[in-house]
Amino acid sequence: MSPIISVSNLTKTYKSGFTALKNVSLDIQPGEIFALLGPNGAGKTTLISVICGLAMATEGKVTVGGHDNVTDYRAARQMIGLVPQELHTDAFEKVRNTVSFSRGLFGKAKDPAHIEKTLKDLSLWDKRDSPIITLSGGMKRRVMIAKALAHEPQILFLDEPTAGVDVELRKSMWQLVRELREKGVTIILTTHYIEEAEEMADRVGVINKGEIILVEDKASLMQKLGRKQLKLHLPERIVSLPPALAPYNLEISEDGEELTYTYDTKGERTGITTLLNDLRDAGLAFNDLNTTQSSLEEIFVSLVKRA
After folding, report:
1. What confidence tens digit (pLDDT) does each residue in 198-215 have?
2. What is the per-residue pLDDT across 85-111, written as a single tens digit (0 to 9) for each?
3. Which of 35, 88, 172, 176 could form a disulfide with 197 if both were Cys (CB 3.0 to 4.6 A apart)?
């Protein structure tokens, strides 16, 4: 299957000499949810701006649905809906009018039924005749999403879409994202809420200092780079460990009633069986045990530090 977005050897250097993107290559597959993660200033918004044709690359090439986004800009841009990080709307325009106008900008015929459905999906229908200036920040964010969906794009970019919105709205927005994906829309998102990427994304890309340092299927990434921890709950408090248990690097909780053993999921052997045998030989019993795996956020932080 051909990628719906293909980025090849992309570099963006500003007149000041600052290089925001360094030789970035990336393919996005049709119908996937792709999460682009990175610290502030990593190049996420710049990359989205170049793909969407809002900024010119210094070097490299971008195609969208097979269309070069420079030589065939109109065809490429028509496939894309963009929800930018910053809110840009006509403050005194009514919600329904500004969303309808966005559809017309892409040469689409009027479709009141589509506009109505989009506004209802985003819980904006009751505000359809309200001036945007009267809306809350969360409502304005919904209007931006409605504008991006007005021309029925095949690709949707969401740049920090849930920044500054409440938990209830965040959940409703992600439900909408799932529904769009079911209809075949490709979703590319950046987010500071990494648990959202962990829940929603099919693949994850990590960008740092303008360079893509990793692109991986989310499940594979968490399997390869995730660490697991075994927690043992003790019946009695302890303050120190027998010397025989030193090789396991066990951590004692502050209350002395729990031991934590960390092991690598990539290892051929976890060492758990040997640990349990050595605990028994050392006379240490436990009431219960459970395992936890490191989150995508912990993996992301470790990757950025390593880079």
Report:
1. 788 899 998 888 999 888
2. 777 778 889 999 999 999 999 989 999
3. 35
Q: Which of 183, 107, 182 is nearest to 150 (CA)?
A: 107
Residue 156's φ and ψ, nearest 5 degrees, are: -125, 120
- Identity at 58, one-letter amino acid code: T
Q: Which domain holds residue 137?
A: 5-222
Rg of the chain's alpha carbons, rounded to an integer?
Answer: 24
| 50 and 163 co-located in one domain | yes
Q: Which residues pair with 289 in a beta bridge?
A: 232
CATH number at residue 239: 3.30.70
Q: Please identify, among 165, 198, 222, the residue that sits at the C-terminal boundary of a domain.
A: 222
- End residue of a domain, out of 222, 251, 279: 222
Asked whether the beta carbons of 102 and 150 are under 8 A apart, the reply is yes
138: CB partners within 8 A, 6+ apart: 164, 165, 166, 169
| Dist CA 35 CA 289 (whole Å) | 34
Interior/surface letters 110-133, b for 16+ CB within 10 angstroms, e for the rest = eeeebbeebbebbbbeebeeeebe
Number of domains in the chain: 2
Calculate the dihedral angle through the C-alpha atoms of 62, 63, 64, 69, rounding to the nearest 10 degrees. Answer: 70
Q: Examine the domain organization and report whether 218 and 243 are in the same domain.
A: no
pLDDT for 307 = 61
Asked if 231 and 215 sit in the same domain, the reply is no
Could you report how far apart the first and last alpha carbons of the chain are, in Å? 31
